[in-house]
Design brief:
It is a single chain. The protein is an alpha/beta fold. The protein contains 10 helices and 8 strands. An 8-stranded parallel sheet has the order 7-6-5-4-3-2-1-8. The protein is globular, with a radius of gyration of 16 Å. The N and C termini lie far apart (about 35 Å).
Length: about 210
């Protein structure tokens, strides 16, 4: 099976990584991101409310591309799909998990931090990968170094990416988008400050597009 992953990272130069602590936050945060010009959301499976949040967004905000992040097991992947996820993201991937993600047939972004992990993903036909944790794993310099030996790979760095350094990543030819949680800070979600989320989304997208031009 050829994984339909190519092109996922062309939808937006910024992929918000969102963690909700109240299921009531799911729909408003997705709508706020759309209002700010970002048509994609990665909702992490880090809390007990994540699956409920996926279902709510899938039902009420169909115009946003909904993904499930922090997928650690095949069972989590299946549950995420059952609750409406249209792409899957993992912080890393064992051979078994990677095989299962590919077999599902949705776009996937498995996390990689080494060239060996990149080649393992490439063996499965995957050319779009999550570089995680981007900062500790070597940052822009590391990705620049792997561009020549594996030029067919495109990355979405997450983990330590900020407004201040996203331009350094997006300037690289093998970086198609960046991901991060700074667009949806926990305090903004707790205070239901959706206007702030929309403004952060708009600023991030504007800066990212300027870095790509």
């Amino acid at each position: 099976m050829t994984p339909p992953s190519r092109g996922l990272l062309d939808l937006s130069p910024v992929v918000p990584v969102v963690t909700i602590f109240d299921p009531a936050q799911a729909v408003p945060v997705a709508r706020a991101l759309l209002s700010g010009g970002i048509p994609i959301i990665e909702l992490t499976l880090r809390t007990q409310h994540a699956l409920q949040g996926l279902s709510a967004i899938a039902a009420e905000v169909p115009d946003i591309l909904l993904g499930a992040g922090s997928v650690l097991t095949p069972k989590q992947a299946d549950l995420a799909v059952d609750h409406g996820a249209r792409f899957l993201v993992s912080p890393g991937a064992s051979p078994g998990l990677l095989h299962h993600l590919v077999e599902i047939g949705l776009p996937v972004l498995p996390g990689v931090a080494t060239v060996s992990e990149m080649l393992t993903a490439l063996d499965q036909g995957l050319t779009e990968l999550k570089f995680f944790p981007a900062g500790p794993a070597g940052g822009p310099a590391y990705l620049a170094a792997v561009a020549s030996p594996v030029p067919q790979l495109r990355f979405c760095p997450t983990g330590g990416v900020t407004l201040e350094n996203l331009g350094d990543y997006l300037a690289l030819p093998n970086v198609a988008a960046v991901g991060g949680s700074w667009i949806t800070p926990a305090e903004a979600l707790a205070e239901q400050d959706w206007r702030r989320v929309s403004m952060l989304a708009r600023d991030a997208r504007r800066l990212a597009e300027a870095s790509l031009s």
